[in-house]
Amino acid sequence: MNEIAKRLHEVYLDGKVIAFTNYKNILSDVTWHEAITHVNELNTIAKLTFHINYYLDGLLNVFNGGALEIKDKYSFDMEPIRSEAEWNTLRDRLLTNAKAFIEHVAQLTDEELKGVFVDAKYGTYQRNMEIVVEHSYYHLGQISLIKKMVRGM
């Protein structure tokens, strides 16, 4: 497994080094009501979970031979979560997609990581995978803080 795949595995599934948590851990006990609770003008936990998964879905499409179709302007366009089952489905889909994404990234050779990602304007695979790691940690921190705020209400 290459270093980027290890970092992705850490942020999504089993990391305890950098943030002392990961998506699997931090979301494991979040209830549906907590996930959809608004704190001031912040995004909800559910909306941030959707947002992160939106990008994983789009990048998995590329890894599976499809086009890069995701757009930033749609990355928060989530349908309302109306039940615990819908919340569980969203959370489980994020973790399933994370596992699949990590597997794809782990298969990339050093040469492939240096290669162009979809179009030269997007840079290399390595640059894009590093952005996913950084973006994921950024929102993991937000989710962690929002979870504490929701539980303190």
CATH topology: Four Helix Bundle (Hemerythrin (Met), subunit A)
Structural class: mainly alpha
Extended strand count:
0
Shape: globular
Order of helices and strands: HHHHHHH
Ends distance: 42 Å
Nearest-integer average pLDDT: 95
What is the number of domains? 1
- Computed over alpha carbons, the radius of gyration is 16 Å
Q: For the report, how would you describe the main beta sheet?
A: none
CATH class: Mainly Alpha
Taken as a percent bin, the fraction of beta residues is under 5%
Give the proportion of residues in helices: 55-70%
Describe what this molecule looks like in 3D:
- The chain is 64% helix and 0% strand.
- The chain has 153 residues and is an all-alpha fold.
- The chain has one domain: dinb family like domain (Four Helix Bundle (Hemerythrin (Met), subunit A), Up-down Bundle), CATH 1.20.120.450.
- Helix 4 (45-63) packs parallel to helix 5.
- The model has no long low-confidence stretch (mean pLDDT 95).
Give a brief rundown of this model.
The protein is an all-alpha fold and about 150 residues long. Helices cover about 65% and strands about 0% of the residues.
Record the SSE blueprint.
Blueprint: H1 3-14, H2 23-27, H3 32-36, H4 45-63, H5 84-107, H6 110-114, H7 125-152
Helix pairs in contact: 1-5, 1-7, 4-5, 4-7
Structure characteristics:
mainly alpha, 64% helix, Four Helix Bundle (Hemerythrin (Met), subunit A), 153 residues, 0% strand, single chain
